[in-house]
Amino acid sequence: MTLTPSHIIEYLFCPRFTYFEYVLAVPQFEEHNYKVMKGRHLHDERLEQNKNYLRRRLGVVNKYLDQYLTNDLIRGRVDEVLELADGTMAPLDYKFAEFKNRIYDTYRTQLYCYAWLIEENFGRSVTRGFLVYTRSQNRVEEIPITAENKADVQKAATAILEIIDRNFFPKATKAKARCVSCTYRNLCIK
Questions:
Q1: The pTM is what?
Q2: How far is residue 79's CA from residue 43's CA, in Å, rounded to a whole number?
């Protein structure tokens, strides 16, 4: 089994999310979430449009569109893998969202996972990524990516596989406010 950035994001939200979804196989019915589905359709639309103007602004010397990348632990489809003038590479991800002066941790985690995948598949360093907010006139935000960021998602991937392989019931998140919006709140032991 390989994981996706969504697995990592769910685990970081609460380790018990992993247990309910992948050990007990309780579905979360995300297909009913309008924003998730709209975002998936948007990715397909964006891949069809000309985005050269954006790449020139970022100093892109080469690009790889819609890249499905894997390693021993995770897999993911990166909207764009950019080869930059300084010799590094960077993931670029489109978000069907407005920019509200804040970068969500879920977006950052997704970029960290993509950075890990790009480094292993292309053999090049990744020190930053880009988010494009399509509902804010394609505003671009640059996100720094450190070695520690990549190590954190690798550690999370290992912990997820341990929960699944050992049927391990983990401790819940310490951030109890997350329980209010969790799809498993009615199943979880408080």
A1: 0.85
A2: 7
